[in-house]
Amino acid sequence: MQIIENSTVYDAIIVGSGAGGGMSAKVLSEAGLKVAVVEAGPFFDPALPEHQTQLKWPYESPRRGKSTRFRPFGDFDAAYGGWDIEGEPYTQKDGTQFEWFRSRMLGGRTNHWGRISLRFGPKDFKHKDVDGHGDNWPISYDDVKPYYDKVDKMIGVFGTNEGLPNDPDGFFLPPPKPRLHELFYIKGARKSNIPVYPSRLSMLTKKINNDRGVCFYCGQCNRACQVYADFSAGTCLIFPAQKNGGQIDLFVNCMVREVTTDEEGRATGVSYINKEDRKEYKLKGKVVVLGASACSSARILLNSKSKQHPNGLGNSSDVVGRYLHDSTGADRAAFIPDLMNRKVSYNEDGVGGMHVYSPWWGDNSKLDFPRGYHIEVWGGMGMPSYGFGFNANEFNKFFGTKVGGYGDVLRSDAKKYYGAVVGMAGRGESIARRDNYCEIDPTTVDEFGIPVLRFHYKWSQFEINQAKHMQDTFEEILTNMGGEFMGEKPGKDTNYGLHNPGNIIHEVGTTRMGDDPKNSVTNKYQQLHDVDNVFIVDAGPFTSQADKNCTWTILALSMRASEYIVDQLKQQNI
Amino acid sequence: MDRRKSLKSIVLGSVAGGLAIHGCKPSGETEQLVESPKITYPGRVPLEEELIQELHDEQFLNPHEIATLTILCDLILPASEEFKAASDAEVVDFIEFMAKDVPAYQPDIRGGLMWLDHKCNTENSVEFKDATVEQQKAILDEIAYYDPEVPGNERPFEVNFFSLIRNLTMTGFYTSKIGIEEIGYKGNMPNVWDGVPDDVLEQHGVAYEEEWLAKCVDQSKRGVIAEWDEKGNLIT
């Protein structure tokens, strides 16, 4: 069979519709370019009743919201995909374990995330100067600041200007008031001299424009908001761009195989498999913008082999796929007796995430790990879902009363302990290493015949030490709160509860930016060193992660790269 | 321009699943989004719907097991003047579904129900479901309590069986409409969060700081479009 070619020549073909691809689609289309967006999953719009899971009750799911293979964060989670996708495997190397989370749908993983929207700080771009580890970015905070400012105003993020040295101020919407358990957290953390601030999440606590609604505090951002009061790339970037008249052709359920190139080695477009008819198609474009996610974009490049690019597109450096790094993560929870016997007289759903958090406060020069972490906190009288009432009165053990039983005592125990658990999660920075990588597994293809990724990833002692510090900190704060711990403190045998890499879903660095083409994949405008009409707008170009979530920086950098594309096209440089 | 129509016309590459024209526009008015549709299974892709249908088409529990489980679940959460029973929330139907969704539950549920009958026959010469409530409770009293310091996999089978049924009964009940009403959860509906009520703060011995509250959203101005000065101070 012949590959079917579309005769349209797009100004730009964007692969992926998440934060990076969505932002690029908005900037490029609003500049008047004709754009194709190619997304591997189906169309999704939470304003459509048949796509909505928001405001559903647990009994509207036969499994009461329990997680499934397709929705590991629960049956009502908006994001379809997960760590284990039928027909789309990935493999591991040398006994290492990297878990790769993908969302197959318009908007990608922006339909899932916690909307924690943290700018990187000045130190985060030049961390090698501070501690000698990793590499500096070729750009600084000052290069990115104007774009962060624009993203804040375009998309909306609540928070507060605190004048912190490495957690920059911005253009914030006002934050919501803390919930009850968060007031306990504030007290507990401060007792250990750990500062607490209003959190910074991209939800509209105040109107930002006439196209999007205002948060109505259902606490369900992970189910996607039908009034677009939280950020996802479909609702806040692609749809508004279309509404503004941007020429965006959406190709959904289309899985990009490779970037096609001409005799000179320049990109001519992409080839993709249409998942509906399982045929291969080609699209032509003047510029190809990869925003498929750090690992997916690396995979596409590595699979785009040609005479001119025998090692994969943009991979003359042999760096594509290398320096893969995820955030570190560890967690702990405790039962807080002072939060027992709560009045259920009010609705404390709040926004879909924590109202307060602790950005990194420590001095790494005095610690046995070089990079920091921030603390997220959870708790409260949430909507019952699968798992509610399991071991309903196990906390009786803290009072020396019987555990288990049957009858009405279970009811009173369930009510006594409702909303009395507080959990903490540390999310930290790991060091980017050349030896942590993804590569093409020559032995395996997915169901579309596309060679899959094979991962090799090991934490170092730095990350393990950091996790230990997290556990010690959690224990101290929860103890300050009067907590009784749930489960044993994770020890050395489990790397102090340090999650497997990939688990925190902040993987970055696979197509790192740099000034030297020998040890980086893109230049500081996220343009391949090897091919001037291919750009990468996901987290692949990150030279390093920070002790922050990566989405806000993906958005700012995608905007910056996309404006550069427009400028270069105008100047006819590409 | 009707945004839906425009989207429908430009989704290419394949038939977008479930994409249809709807007049539902994003809106800043919370009043317009109070009602969610009645029970429909929401937001699924075809593969998920197929699997759910397959699970519904299967039958795991036989009539005797259903009858026994119904009695067992109602001993766990009995009806009274004040409360509804597990059976009022159709907990056994939920357990039937979960046994198929999590096949690892199946041997414990099936074997545990057999154990109950064996035990009851041995002691009372009658199957569990036909025993008197006193006889049933006498059996449960031996298996309903556990030592939380003993790891789960070291506890006797019958204790773990009962814990599993108790857990599924509790979850099945408290995720049902009547269970949610009983537990008193007040959320899952549009509202305006404006902090913890004073009586709750007082009960738990905490208070808001003025300095912190001053940073928080003024809910009377939430509908006013945000504007900032050049330093990032909100001015509206």
UniProtKB/TrEMBL annotation, chain A:
<dbReference type="Pfam" id="PF00732">
    <property type="entry name" value="GMC_oxred_N"/>
</dbReference>
<feature type="domain" description="Glucose-methanol-choline oxidoreductase N-terminal">
    <location>
        <begin position="205"/>
        <end position="326"/>
    </location>
</feature>
<dbReference type="GO" id="GO:0050660">
    <property type="term" value="F:flavin adenine dinucleotide binding"/>
</dbReference>
<dbReference type="InterPro" id="IPR036188">
    <property type="entry name" value="FAD/NAD-bd_sf"/>
</dbReference>
<keyword id="KW-0560">Oxidoreductase</keyword>
<dbReference type="InterPro" id="IPR007867">
    <property type="entry name" value="GMC_OxRtase_C"/>
</dbReference>
<keyword id="KW-0274">FAD</keyword>
<keyword id="KW-0285">Flavoprotein</keyword>
<dbReference type="Pfam" id="PF05199">
    <property type="entry name" value="GMC_oxred_C"/>
</dbReference>
<protein>
    <submittedName>
        <fullName>Choline dehydrogenase</fullName>
    </submittedName>
</protein>
<dbReference type="GO" id="GO:0016614">
    <property type="term" value="F:oxidoreductase activity, acting on CH-OH group of donors"/>
</dbReference>
<dbReference type="InterPro" id="IPR051473">
    <property type="entry name" value="P2Ox-like"/>
</dbReference>
<feature type="domain" description="Glucose-methanol-choline oxidoreductase C-terminal">
    <location>
        <begin position="440"/>
        <end position="557"/>
    </location>
</feature>
<comment type="similarity">
    <text>Belongs to the GMC oxidoreductase family.</text>
</comment>
<dbReference type="InterPro" id="IPR000172">
    <property type="entry name" value="GMC_OxRdtase_N"/>
</dbReference>
Automatic annotation (TrEMBL), chain B:
<dbReference type="Pfam" id="PF13618">
    <property type="entry name" value="Gluconate_2-dh3"/>
</dbReference>
<dbReference type="InterPro" id="IPR027056">
    <property type="entry name" value="Gluconate_2DH_su3"/>
</dbReference>
<protein>
    <submittedName>
        <fullName>Gluconate 2-dehydrogenase subunit 3</fullName>
    </submittedName>
</protein>
